[in-house]
Amino acid sequence: MSHASVKSLSLSKKRKIRENPTQNVDAGISAKRSRNTTQLSQSERANTSGIEDTRRCGKIISIHLTNFMCHSNLRIEFNPRVNFLVGRNGSGKSAILAALVLGLGCNAKVTNRSKSAKDFIKIGETTAKIEITIANDGPQPFDPDEYGESITIVRTITTSSGYYAIRNSHGRIVTKKFDDLQRILLYHNIQADNPVFVLNQDSAREFLKELEPSKNYQLFLKATQIDLITEKLDECLHLHKAHREELATTEKKLQYMEKDIAVHKGKLKELMEFEHLGENLNALNIEYHWLLVKELEDKLDEIHKKMDKHEGKVNELNKLINNKDEVNSILTQKIAESFENIKLKNKDYSDVNQSLRKIRCQIDEIIRKRSEIEMKIESLKKKKSRLEKHINDLKQHIEERSKRRQNEESLANYRKQCETSLTPLIESLKRELNMLMENKSQKELIIDKIKQEHGTTIDNQMATVKESIKNKMLIYGRHMPELLKEIKKAHADGKFSVPPMGPVGAYLQVPNNQYREAVESLINAKTLQAFICDNASDRRTFEHILSKLSKENHHMIITTKFMRQVYDVSNGRVIPPSGTSLLMELIECPNPVVMNFLIDRMRIETILLTDKKDIAESITSIRENVPNNLSKVVVLCSDSAHLEYYPVPHYRMYSNKIRRPKYLHINVNERIKYLEVEKSKLENQLSSLKKDLEGVVPQLCKDKEQIQNKRALLEEKEGALMEMLQKIADLDNVEYADYNNELQLLKNEIEERNFLLIEIDQGVNENDLELNKFKSQEEAFKDDYGRKKYKLQEIQNEIEGMKADLDKLKLKLRNINDNEALNKDRLEGLTKQCNQFEETKQFAEQKGERLISNLTVDEVLMQMARIKAKLERGRPIDLDQDSLQDLIAHKERELETKRLIYDNLKTSIDSLRASLRHRFDFIKKFKGHMSMLLTMSFEMILRLRNYVGNLVPDHQNKTLKISVIPRDHDTASVSSARALSGGERSYSTVAFLISLWSCVDHPFYFLDEYDVFTDEVNREYMTRLLTEEGRNHAWRQYSFLTPQDMSLDPENFIRIHRYCTEEY
């Protein structure tokens, strides 16, 4: 960590140091093999008030990793606003992001690196520990009395299990429950598993590569937490359904309990009635007999009423019975007369009906003839229509025949014009345009190359190398001799308990010239310039000395306890196979502290070097050939590059560049000669390119203007060609009939058809006259037919009336004969009913006094039968009356309790349903609002680069399409994100992410490899855009991971963490 990094610590970190000044010292002593990453800040914070404005609960203060992936002991202090984590691929940046996700309670699958947390334990270790300290000193802290101003979440991972521990700001463990961690994260709105807030390396690459509309929509839902809300609402909906089913079951139970109580009440009623069954039976018996008397009385009353009503009719019938013979003779005579009249009328009916049928036959014949004439007329008209159409077709053929020659001449002219003028011209324009475009691209490359080439750095290097002849320490920087003097002076004054050791490269030698460049490249220049301190107090003193000398010279500072002996690595070292060398054996270092530092940081006891590629592949790609404890194999390919092989199960290979050795045992004269040659080459190349530049720049402007003119002319000619081709196609599609001597034939045929038309018209007129004659005859016959039919109907009505009168006479005669016997039978029946009534009444009086009842006889008999059956069965239940009443009361109380529960549950379910409906409506509106806000923000960010684009959300199909038109492109053609270049797509993606950030809020945002597919220009613009985002949102914390180097203007809110080598 640099001296600037120490000054830019957050207030919470400074507060910790004041409260426990020995804490960091003890941590450095206890960690046998510890190291800290290089952390650089652009500048110090301006003042204390600026820090106070950035306070917010939930921000990441620091992360401490122990034996996690490639890190043995790594501690990172985060700036509360903007952090850049910079380092080459494999340096362990993404491991920090994975530790953040795992440490904040997420599953290992969320990291996209493994399915189990135990896979993150460093190789060769049994446990790993993640310590994440989050701020709790902003507005609305979580339980500040218990936790204080910060909360440290510790997750320990072992090969078999794992556990959490949550500490307060004083280091005391408050709880070990995972539920308490979830409450803290929920309280501070920390969503480590949300890719919008923590976008890891794999997700970033996939997102930048695909930009699928469906995945964009899912990201939008995750960012706004709409997916989580919808999931919770769905759970509530299922809960509502389950409670509905439970409510239906409860309702059925209530109905069953009501029926059970009704049954018991019925039994109680039966029990109470059983005592009076005998009395009831006697009463019903008396009631039964009197009901019989009442029925007989009703029947007699009805008979008397009928007799009074029909008394006059009876007298008349009696008279008819007395004069029966006379009446019979009269009626018989009338019947005979009626038969004669009916016969006469039937004869008249037959005559009229016969004439009516004849008329009907005549009408049918006339109708048939009329139909034939009408069909003939219709046939002639159709034939006439066909002749007229044929005549018109013949005339049209004559006209087309005369036009064909003219069309053939036009078609030949169009084709000749296309072949001779337009087509060669268009091909020529296309060739010229392609040549101009290629020439323009080459000249632009020349300009870029001229601007990039420079040789100032070589001059500085040469000066430093020449001065190092007198003092070798100058090769580590002009300030190095003075720095070493200040260290000796401070030690003499007692400010150091043990003087810092450094630079590290001064203690190292590589006797084998073959491997010197590779060794320096593996250790890297930053490590060779590093200093080692024994404790935190010496570190602070050394940082103070550095700050006084120069603020521009940054050295890595490592704090570790000085040991007098080199570590015993016999159990952890690699035994080099034939043809390989161990890195630890290639380095000569008399100082045990420096050697232990290299073992801790580089694991030099596990790295092999060789100059044969097949040996490296053999011992890394086949599991059986991998030596124990091997971490990687370095292959020397050439003077400018080497290969790094990593053994299975994580077999992979990287290619790295090698620079000339600068620090390890170099020959000064050779170094100067090499730099002079390089400078000479660059100067010659630069002078040549400058001459080319003088002629290229003006010509480039002219080429651009010519390209635009050629494009316009090409479009114009292509349009004319397309128009002519369309005309040729239209003329080719016209077909003509080809007849021999058809002109005269057609004219003769027209004359014949005209004669036929005249004959058809004459036939139609003759048939029309005959048709009118038949129509007049048909009308006369129809009138005669109507009159006959009316007369026939009158005769038929008279016959029907006569038949009716005859039937009445017959009926009257039959009634006279039947009434005499019927009246005699009725009289005898009335006499019997009266006698029966008297007997029944006397029997009822003997049973008891007369009772008034509303029941019928059948109902009384049914009740008597039930009572007799009950008496035969005995008591209906074994319980007595009091016990049964108590049982019924108990069941009624239980029913009332259940009903109360049922009513409360029903009220709650109805309320839940109404609430769900309201929230689903709200989610629908919320989606529309957030998508509109997202679209506006996205368009505004695109306009910063003069891009035009928009977002097209489709909530029905769950898609979110990104459309972007880069600057200087045709605004009429909307481009999808897939059609963009790498840089344009990366910028559009970052714009989309920032738009999502503007719609939601979170304490921190981590973004890994945002510039993986971009060019230098877009990368610089994207970095400034993200930096501006951090400047405008001081209450948020941003961390961006990138393999590219950073070159930013000094700002008091930015911290850059550099990872110079891979750590294992």
TrEMBL record:
Q: Does the keyword DNA damage apply?
A: yes
* Name used for this protein in its record: RecF/RecN/SMC N-terminal domain-containing protein
Swiss-Prot/TrEMBL keywords: ATP-binding, Chromosome, Coiled coil, DNA damage, DNA recombination, DNA repair, Nucleotide-binding, Nucleus
Q: What's the source species for this entry?
A: Glossina palpalis gambiensis
Q: Which GO terms describe its molecular function?
A: ATP binding; damaged DNA binding; single-stranded DNA binding
Q: What does the similarity note say?
A: Belongs to the SMC family. SMC6 subfamily.
Q: Which domain of life is it from?
A: Eukaryota
Please list the residue ranges that the record marks as compositionally biased, kind Polar residues: 36-50
Entry's localization field: Chromosome; Nucleus
Taken from the UniProt entry, a GO cellular component term is: site of double-strand break
Q: Which GO terms describe its biological process?
A: double-strand break repair via homologous recombination
Chain segments annotated as coiled-coil in the UniProt record:
293-327, 356-453, 665-749, 792-847
Q: Domain RecF/RecN/SMC N-terminal: where? A: 60-1031
Q: Where is this region: Disordered?
A: 1-50
Q: Which PANTHER family match?
A: STRUCTURAL MAINTENANCE OF CHROMOSOMES 5,6 SMC5, SMC6, STRUCTURAL MAINTENANCE OF CHROMOSOMES PROTEIN 6
Q: Where is the composition biased (Low complexity)?
A: 1-11
Pfam families noted in UniProt: SMC_N
InterPro entries, alphabetically?
A: P-loop_NTPase (IPR027417), RecF/RecN/SMC_N (IPR003395)
